[in-house]
Every structure is written in C-alpha cells, then in structure tokens.
Amino acid sequence: MSDRLLETLQERFGHAAFRGPQRAICEHLLAGGDAFVVMATGDGKSLCYQLPALLREGLTLVVSPLIALMEDQVLALRARGIAASCVHSLLERGEREARLLAAERGELRLLYCTPERFRVPGFLDRMRALRIALLAIDEAHCLSQWGHDFRPDYRNLGSVRAALGHPPTIALTATATPAVQADVRQALGIANAPLWHCGVERKNLFLAVREVNDREAKLARVLEIVERVGGPGIVYFALIKELAAVETELRKRGYDPLIYHGDLSASERKEQQARYIAADDALILATNAFGMGVDKPDIRFIVHGQMPRTLEAYSQEIGRAGRDGRPALCELLYFAEDLSVQREFTEWANPSAEFMARVVAVLEDLGERALAFDVDALRDKLLVKNRRDGRIDTCLRLLRTAGCFEGEFGRGSFRWLRSPGPAEIAAWLPDDKRERDLSALLTLLRWCQGEDCRKRALHAYFGFADDFPTGCLCCDRELTSEAWLDAALPPASRVPIPRHEPRLGSAAAADAPLQRGDWLDVQGHGLCAVVRVHRTTRGVMVDLERARDLQALSFPLGRLRWRKVES
User: Fold this and answer.
1) What residues contact residue 555 under an 8 Å CB cut-off, 6+ apart?
2) What domains sit in the chain, N to C, each tagged with a CATH number?
3) pTM of whole model > 0.90?
C-alpha cells in the first residue's frame, strides 16, 4: 500500500515525497481508523484525506466552514484531474441537484459541504444512502465552545457521523489546545482516534511583539517594515475604522494598498483577494475575515496592527506567512488601548440568553414588516445607549447558522423560519463562556508581555511544554527584529504599490452620481448594490452586485437605466 500511496502522491499531486506524518495518517485511514490531526497552516493537512479519497472505494465527504474555501479546494483538485465537487447555498437549485446526482452515480471522489447543509431536508438521508467511505472535518476546532471560532452546526456533526454509520473520520485543525482536542473528540465520538500533533513551530518565522505608545508610532513601524521587507505582506486590524485610517495615511505617502473587510461586498472582497494572490509584492490591509483559503506561499511579513483576541487566532494568522519555507517576519504591534477593543469584542461575543430571547421576540413579530426592516431598526428597538454594541451581530450570526432565518435585512429577502428554544439558546451561550473568553484574552496579553521565548511559550500553550529546544533565535526574546532581518532577508528591491483602478470617491469618479453602498432598481435586473464606480476608456463604469443571486454586473453608467432606492 505504501508504494501505491507514493505513486498516487507523485502522479496526482506532483509531490516527490511525503511531509512529516502524512504517510502514516493516510495509511491509518486506509486501514479504516479514525484520526485527529493538528498541523500548522500550510503543512499539508488537506492531503491527509484527499489522497486516501483516491484509494478508497466510495465517496469522501468533506465538511468545511467557508464556501470560498470549498470552491478553491475543488478547483485545485479538478485542475489535477480529480473528480471533486461542492454543494452550498449560493448555487442555483438545479446546479446543486446536478452535483448531488453526480455523487449518487459514483462520478465523484470528494464532495464538500458546510455543516449547515445537514439542516436542509433530505440531504443527510441522501448522504446516508451513499454509504460514505470517509468523513473529513476541516477546521475541527469549530466544534468546541472552548475554541476561538465556535459554530453551532459544527457541534451537530457527532450525530451526523452516527447517522452516516460511523464512517472512518479525520478531524483536522491548525489550532487546538488540549481542552479543545478533548471537546472535539467527545463531540464526534472519536475518543480513541490517535493524535498526530505536529506542533506549531516553523523555524522560518520570526515572532516579535513591539510596544508602541500611539497610533503615529504604529503607522511609522508599519512603514518601516513595508520599506525594509517589501512584500507580499498582510497588516491585520481588529477595527475597520482603524484599517481605514492607516489606509488613508499610506495613500498620502504614495502607497496603494489593497483592502479586505466585512463592509466590502462579496464581489469586491473576491476581487481584492484575487489581486493579492496574483501580485508578487502586494500589501493588503485586512480584518481577520481575510486569510482562510488564501493559498499564497510567498508572504514575507504579517503585522498585527491591533492585537487579536486569542493565541489560537494569532497562530492561525501568522501561519499564512512563509509557506514557501523562506524567512518571514511576524510582528505584533502592542498598543495598550487596543486591549480595550478586544475586551469589548469579548463582551459582544457573549450576549446573555435573555438578550438573545429579546432579539428572537422582535424578529418573530416582524411579519411582513421584515421587508422594510434592517439591522439599524433592530438596534433602535433593543439598544438604549451604545449603538456600536455588537451583541446583536453575534445573535444574528448564531440564529443564521442555526437556520432560524434566511436572506438579508434591508434587501427585501429576510425570512424568519423558526424560533430556537431555551435549551438551544443555552447550548449556544453557556454560562461560563464569557469567563473562558476573557481568560483567553488575558493569556494572549501575558504572552505579549512575558519574558520567555515566544515560540516556547506558544508551543506550551498548545500542549508541548517539554518539547521545544532552547535558543531558537527566531523571536525577539533572543534577537531583535532588525538583527534577524539583516541575517535572514536581503533589503527589499521594491516596495508594494499595486496599481489598480481608482477607488470609489476618487477624482476619476467624482462626476458619478453614485457611490459604493447605494441601492439601485436596475431595469431588467431588479435590486442591485453598487460595488464600485470607476473611470475607463469607455467612460464612467458602475460595478453592481445583483441582490437575488449575488451575480456581479458591470455597465457604462450612461447606458444604464436605473432608479436609486433610498434606504
């Protein structure tokens, strides 16, 4: 079997040899065992189930958290001639059905879906009839309320696995503490699955924390890194307004960074990500919404312009740097005031069950008024003082992922489907979750301020207290960032100034009567959101996103028949 594994690895994936424990994991799965894999981002987790999928009879079902991530993996597999597909909510019903029929005819080796798909009537029954040969659960930490990215529908995968007849199962993640590992095992029913934990150490990454006293010092350090290292690089922010402020200052200095955050439309985010992946020296300013599924091996620096909330999130984000094996700088800019931002986020992430019940009561009572209702109206009803309070957003996210509603506020598509009971709400919001989240934030703060080797401390946090060499020379407790850069990376020959179309609101589009975020009733297309207005040789163009199917459209403004819809 080992020879067959190696031959398939070389022929279908183009790799000369296995990396780390990949071979052992594949052999274990092919023998019918379960596996728990904790492997650093970029170290080849996906191969651990993709390769066995080609050598087992039957279909491998892969549960993944993001539609974009699934589609990227399916495209990559198809490019290698591997029969793979995915089903998700953004597909037309006919296309979803065609893909499921292909699976039922035995034409696919791998089928990807989100955990929410199992709530769709009939889907689990169809998967059960297929006799799934292997179940792969990616980003398995999402099962655990102890983890940093809990999703309620992931928690149901234990019962899904049982309904499928307990097929061989592999759970994969890059970030799982011992407590999270135990919780995932219990939830999935794989208590005896062997653990392959590759640690979090990557010798080519230099970890540093630099304390700054004000935002000007923060900006100055970002500029120093950009000019010294070049790119590609990512600067992460917790707040969109902080990101926007840095973007403005960079543009004043002649830089033209890409941006990625939740206030951009889906098509605009997709465009920014594609530009970043294609460029060889790009700089992108992003919130933590950016990164998952970004397969770019040559990222030379990752700067945290604001501190993340947990060491798990930090580890996952720096894991995107230096996947080509070359040196990469990872520097967190610690500004004391940013701690209050994450403290506030932690409070918002933990609304009380009573607050959730109030949100549910308002949504239940909307009826036909839901078509004209939006999130601001919901805030008006529930919030007295702080309109920035993010508890409503947390409640809506939990309600959406639990299938309590579908569609979007303010777009005429919101529809209430069901009301959760008290026990379900209590399962989403356990009494001790707030304390655990605050403890995780405190652990990150102590790591930032601690005197120990950063890599040793990180290694210990993930359960490897006695398995890390001394004298790593890859963190700022033993070497300054500047000394490491002088030894590891030559000075940049180019700084990242990617050129792209003028942004909305620029002089090139100043004569346009529209701006990003406007809603239009467009003849022949219905309700559309304005994504971008820009000038080309054809005149002023308007890029739109059609509300009913999120299809991207582009028209010369003068030839478009539209009516602005006032919000």
Assistant:
1) 541, 542, 544
2) 2-197 (3.40.50.300), 205-338+447-488 (3.40.50.300), 351-428 (1.10.10), 507-565 (2.40.10)
3) no
